[in-house]
């Protein structure tokens, strides 16, 4: 999505965009390998239509790298307190690099023992959780990816930000013809973007979506946007987010309970985000062939259910995003002038000159 | 809760009730040990105020035992396809016995490797998921308890029952002074009981709770009660329930995708419910002392948040139920005449005579 409604939209070629992003991060001191990982995850989010976790975040990541509160060359320390468990101290590296390493550790343990867990401390915002799920399923593994986050949602019964709107993320490989299950959902009722859209349209929002800045229930989208979003299903979303505070914060040694740094507001200190990743072999209890056939059956039966709306196909978690990705790989990622200007500016800041025209699809 | 509003309420002593329930199941051929487990889990649900999963279910369990579609003396088969993974074939035993065994296997693996997983096939309705979470935290472990269930909720986009309203269940030990986290939540918007209550009061229900029997959105509680309940947060609850179909059904060899037997409607065949239980040591990445202190901090900070309603304390997942349990252990479980009559009748069916007066608290 372009940043500003009404401006011209350009179709950007994903591989070229990835390279441009990687160049910017190399310019900030990352190794070529790490910079490529950052480029891949950020562009993957834009490909899947999750623009909030794509290149629109480059400016904050680079600002924090310049300030030294995120380290370009972290010394990631991995220990194995038990055979199927790894602890990863991210040394304030970019979350992409740290979480990716944790996923590799969880998978290595799962390969040997059937299931593995990696706990992470001293990490930073890791972007779109689905990126790690996709890596796991590509390697043939199912995975849970948990993170905590800076406070933006009240605990159930509270009225000030305490919990993160941390995503609950689970992925499992697909069957022979069926797609993987990629469930990556915020634990809030709605994303703040929906409240912003209602505000722009001058529409009311349903009770239960958000509180205003004074902690009162509101249906006024403008007041809600100044306030805080509420947890999904009340105590349920609050409980899921608290669970991630335990898994990703309390257990791992990372910050927790309202103390994870906000990458925008707390620019003078590391975030100390925590993650927990659990990976396991989906064919553990049978064989890979049986698993795939049964997944095909599950998806086929689900798709075959009578529909609420005949014109709306029944889709598996992650399928809408996969469809968008296929479309954008073929026809380009729609970016606005402001996005392209931001890329050129970020490149210039590290002494590079990017010809943004050369990023366009079909050039 | 007594079964019928308006009838007399008796305060029943929990340990005596447990023994009475165990006697009934022994009378149906269960070993003394297994019968005690069933009594404990059922009464635990009533103690915690989860009456839908307590002794009110005895009649269906005993009916299925009599019909032979649930086996009183199952030959539970456990295999270990990988070091930290166990497969449990429940041989159509009562879900309590089978799931309890699976939890033990997951914990045994976690003790050795840090984390363990047990997949279960050929099981039956396992009651309240929180029961197993409580066992896990008592043993010092954190756990996920997943199950699939007979169809009662549409997949997102569908309008007929396909998924179970399977609970998402996670538990973690508490700190030195703080309670454990016991998160046990249905993946539907609301329990059907809430729709029934609205119907009885003649109140409308909010859009989005349920569909009528024709698959149309409805705010009429009566029509909704004849229809089906919708998933929590739309695609989110549907995604969580689908996830459990993969974890508990596709992976384990159990039924899945709409084919788990309904214990009430399909009385002539086994249910083939599946479960997946993952257990791990919460102090994996530090020490037990640090974990407990950090849990205390998390809970204390959460409780200290400014409240939405000054009179409503902020509670952790599972705290309301734990409070109810303490109260009911002290003052008895409120049961109605119909509940006591049911107990006497079930006892009589196995040739026992229960003096229900002797079950009352203070007798």
Structural account:
2 copies of one chain form a homodimer. The first copy, chain A, is α+β, with helices and mostly antiparallel strands. The first copy, chain A, folds into 2 domains: 99 residues, Malate/L-lactate/L-sulpholactate dehydrogenase, four-helix barrel (Hypothetical Oxidoreductase Yiak, Chain: A, domain 1, Orthogonal Bundle), CATH 1.10.1530; 195 residues, Ribosomal Protein S8, Chain: A, domain 1. Chain A contains 11 helices and 11 strands. In chain A, the strands form 3 sheets. Chain A has a 7-stranded mixed β-sheet, sandwiched between helices. In chain A, a hairpin with an 8-residue loop joins strand 6 and strand 7. The longest helix of chain A has 19 residues. The model of chain A has no long low-confidence stretch (mean pLDDT 94). Chains A and B meet through strand 4, strand 6, strand 7, helix 8 and helix 9 of A and strand 4, strand 6, strand 7, helix 8 and helix 9 of B.
Write the SSE topology.
Two copies of one chain form a homodimer.
Chain A: E1 9-12, H1 14-27, H2 32-47, H3 58-67, E2 77-82, E3 85-89, H4 95-113, E4 115-123, H5 130-138, E5 142-147, E6 167-172, E7 181-186, H6 192-201, E8 210-211, H7 221-226, E9 228-229, H8 235-250, E10 273-280, H9 288-303, H10 319-331, E11 333-336, H11 337-349
Parallel strand pairs in A: 3-4
Antiparallel strand pairs in A: 1-11, 2-3, 4-10, 5-6, 5-10, 6-7, 8-9
Helix pairs in contact in A: 1-2
């Amino acid at each position: 999505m372009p940043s500003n409604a009404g401006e011209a939209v350009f179709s950007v070629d994903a591989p070229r965009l990835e390279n441009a992003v990687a160049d910017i991060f190399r310019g900030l001191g990352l190794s070529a390998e790490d910079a490529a990982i950052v480029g891949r995850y950020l562009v993957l989010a834009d490909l899947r239509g999750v623009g909030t976790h794509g290149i629109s975040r480059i400016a904050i990541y680079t600002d924090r790298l310049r300030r030294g509160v995120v380290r370009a060359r972290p010394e990631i320390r991995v220990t194995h307190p038990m055979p199927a468990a790894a602890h990863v101290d991210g040394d304030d590296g970019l979350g992409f690099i740290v979480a990716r390493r944790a996923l590799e550790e969880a998978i290595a343990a799962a390969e040997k023992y059937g299931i593995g867990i990696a706990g992470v401390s001293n990490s930073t915002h890791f972007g779109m959780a689905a990126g790690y799920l996709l890596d796991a399923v590509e390697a043939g593994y199912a995975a849970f990816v948990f993170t905590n986050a800076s406070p933006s949602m009240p605990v159930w019964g509270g009225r000030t930000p305490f919990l993160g709107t941390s995503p609950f993320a689970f992925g499992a490989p697909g069957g022979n013809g069926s797609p993987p299950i990629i469930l990556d959902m915020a634990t809030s009722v709605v994303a703040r973007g929906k409240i912003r859209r209602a505000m722009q349209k001058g529409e009311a929002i349903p009770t239960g979506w958000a509180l205003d800045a004074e902690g009162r229930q509101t249906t006024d989208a403008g007041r809600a946007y100044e306030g805080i979003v509420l947890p999904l299903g009340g105590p349920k979303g609050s409980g899921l987010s608290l669970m991630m505070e335990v898994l990703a914060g309390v257990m791992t040694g990372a910050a927790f309970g309202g103390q994870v740094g906000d990458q925008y507001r707390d620019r003078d200190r590391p975030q100390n985000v925590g993650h927990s990743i659990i990976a396991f072999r989906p064919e553990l209890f049978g064989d890979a062939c049986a698993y795939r056939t049964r997944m095909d059956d599950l998806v086929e039966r689900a798709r075959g259910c009578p529909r609420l709306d005949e014109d709306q196909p029944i889709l598996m978690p992650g399928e809408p995003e996969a469809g968008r990705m296929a479309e954008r790989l073929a026809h380009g990622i729609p970016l606005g002038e402001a996005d392209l200007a931001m890329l050129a500016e970020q490149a210039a800041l590290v002494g590079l000159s990017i010809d943004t025209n050369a990023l366009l699809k079909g050039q």
